[in-house]
Amino acid sequence: MQASFQLMADSPAFFMGFVFIVSLMVGSFLNVVIYRLPVMMERSWKAEIAEYTASQNADAPNATSPCEPPFNLVKPDSTCPKCQHKIRAWENIPVLSWLALRGKCSQCKNPIAIRYPLVELGTGLLSTLVAWHFGFGLAGFAAVVATWLLIAMTFIDLDTMLLPDQLTLSLLWLGLLLSIEGPFVSSQDALIGAAVGYLSLWSLYWAFKLLTGKEGMGYGDFKLLAAIGAWVGWQHLPVVVLLSSFVGAIVGVTLLTVQGKDKSQPIPFGPYLAAAGFLTLLYGDWIVTQYWQWMLP
């Protein structure tokens, strides 16, 4: 193990190759997280509601619900949604299995969405970019983990308009703990960044709600920006907000004009925050420098 770490430290190419292969496998697991975590949250909410309803209705008989089969990130085993064919190990190799199966189930030939290998490949490529940028060390490994979390949150928000606490708070606490060693920002900047990130969107939320009576965004967005603030510091939060708002506005206008979507239809903001946070973590200083050079030639 020590020899492997030494080889990664001495050879950037070996380190990036290692990160790419591991991240491909993690990308396969992220596909599971993206689908199952929202379902697990929904089941938990329903169970809590049922428990509360039963506790409030003293006259109701004590009926015991049938024991449901386990549903988590490990069980049940992955199967084809059409024919319930159990996915075998050789059918679950990131990217390669999808190509070998030509994007279809080996039994019923039901199409397998191309998003699965794209998530795997995207996770591998983005993680490799992070490894190349930061190099071998605490910053590199930590930024790769942050990339995995941001990818999972991006697709969950796109699918369900949810940003699970299990992911946003993990990113937040990891950023705060890392600030003790300071690979990205100091503890002071991380703490202020987390607080300012949360309170800035929280303030906008309540201002918009008081003015319009509508909710402009969800609390998950506050937590995600707080987590990003813990990684990039309060100084770079304006970059994150401006980038995410700019891209979000372009995408929103495009959806309205091209796809004819209703103006009142909500659009997830988490993916734009995640993308902006990722870019700021890698290139925040460069973006700020280019901005001031453009503003003050």
TrEMBL record:
The keyword Transmembrane applies. The keyword Disulfide bond does not apply. Gene3D superfamilies: 1.20.120.1220. GO terms for cellular component: plasma membrane. Keywords: Cell inner membrane, Cell membrane, Hydrolase, Membrane, Methyltransferase, Multifunctional enzyme, Protease, S-adenosyl-L-methionine, Transferase, Transmembrane, Transmembrane helix. Plays an essential role in type IV pili and type II pseudopili formation by proteolytically removing the leader sequence from substrate proteins and subsequently monomethylating the alpha-amino group of the newly exposed N-terminal phenylalanine. This is Prepilin leader peptidase/N-methyltransferase. The gene is tapD. InterPro entries: Peptidase_A24A_bac (IPR014032), Prepilin_IV_endopep_pep (IPR000045), Prepilin_pept_A24_N (IPR010627), Prepilin_peptidase/N-MTase (IPR050882). The lineage of its organism: Bacteria, Pseudomonadati, Pseudomonadota, Gammaproteobacteria, Alteromonadales.
